[in-house]
Amino acid sequence: MRIKNLRGKSVRIVVAISLIAVVITQLWSQNIPNLKDIEAADLSILSGRIIVLDPGHGGIDSGAQGNGFLEKDITLALAIKIGKILENNGATVIFTRDSDIDYYTRGKGGKRKDLLKRVEIINNSGAEAFVSIHTNAIRGKEWFGAEVYYNPKLAENQELGETMQQSLKNFSPGNKRQSRKDLNILVLKNSNLPGVLVEAGFLTNSHEANLLADDGYQTQMAEHIVKALAYHFCHSVAR
Ligand SMILES: [Zn+2]
Q1: Could you give the CA distance from residue 210 to residue 218 in angstroms, rounded to a whole number?
Q2: pLDDT tens digits for the chain (239 residues)?
Q3: pTM, entire model
Q4: How far is the CA of 200 from the centre of ligand 1 (A)?
Q5: Ligand 1 centre and the CA of 63: distance in Å?
Q6: Which residues, 6 or more positions from 86, have their beta carbon under 8 angstroms from its beta carbon?
Q7: Which of 163, 130, 149 shows the shortest CA–CA distance to 39?
Q8: How many CA atoms lie within 13 A of 19 on its CB side?
Q9: From the CA of 27, how far away is ligand 1's center (Å)?
Q10: How far apart are the CA of 56 and the centre of ligand 1, in A?
Q11: Residue 116 C-alpha to ligand 1 middle, in angstroms?
Q12: In angstroms, what is the span from residue 137 Cα to ligand 1's centroid?
């Protein structure tokens, strides 16, 4: 009898905990749009908007390397594809660079000056949003997946970051990464308008590196980055 009671009690506790978990999961997921809704975003909302694209690195700064690919080449190729789709939908695109250049200056702090020049372009753009594009590299070859960073100083940054991450959940397939808050990334910290930084994938993973260099994969990824922007403009609480 005693054992039976105890069993009944533990079943009730398990049920209660499960219900709480379901409620928390639902509340949490309400904030993050689902992929189907992002993919269905109306791109006409992009018309007349100004957007800055910041392809990471360039010129003397190759960025990360892996499997024979350079970050600066992939980020530029991706940015140009994103820019074309935005322009085809009536947006004006400002690039921090649209060729293989850098903003390094002689002497100390060259890298910082390069980044601050990009911030200056972003802050003087009159744009509504910016996207910085990078690729990752790490010691372990098994790591993969696009990852979106944002600075939580603006609520819109988090919204756009979560939407962007969700839009990139199949880049590459099996990507389990979550968007990440970051207080230190210079471009995110110093820019005055909403924006995110997309680490498009890992050059150190040979499968993903080859995808990142693939024209078709780049186009699909560019489309999903644009869809995330369109969804954000449609749904952001700031508008
Ligand atoms: Zn980078």
Answers
A1: 11
A2: 454 555 666 666 666 666 666 555 555 555 789 999 999 999 999 999 999 999 999 999 999 999 999 999 999 999 999 999 999 999 999 999 999 999 998 888 999 999 999 999 999 999 999 999 999 999 999 999 999 999 999 999 999 999 999 999 999 999 999 999 999 999 999 999 999 999 999 999 999 999 999 999 999 999 999 999 999 999 985 55
A3: 0.88
A4: 10
A5: 5
A6: 46, 51, 53, 93, 226, 229
A7: 163
A8: 6
A9: 34
A10: 5
A11: 15
A12: 9
Name the one residue in this structure whose structure tokens are 């609520």: 155
Q: What is the 3-state secondary structure (H, E, C) of the chain?
A: CHHHHHHHHHHHHHHHHHHHHHHHHHHHHHHCCCHHHHHCCCHHHHCCCEEEEEECCECCECCCEECCEEHHHHHHHHHHHHHHHHHHCCCEEEECCCCCCCCCCCCCCHHHHHHHHHHHHHHCCCCCEEEEEEEECCCCCCCCCCEEEECCCCHHHHHHHHHHHHHCCCCCCCCCCCCEECCCCHHHHHCCCCEEEEEEEECCCHHHHHHHCCHHHHHHHHHHHHHHHHHHHHHCCCC
Amino acid, single-letter form, for residue 52: V
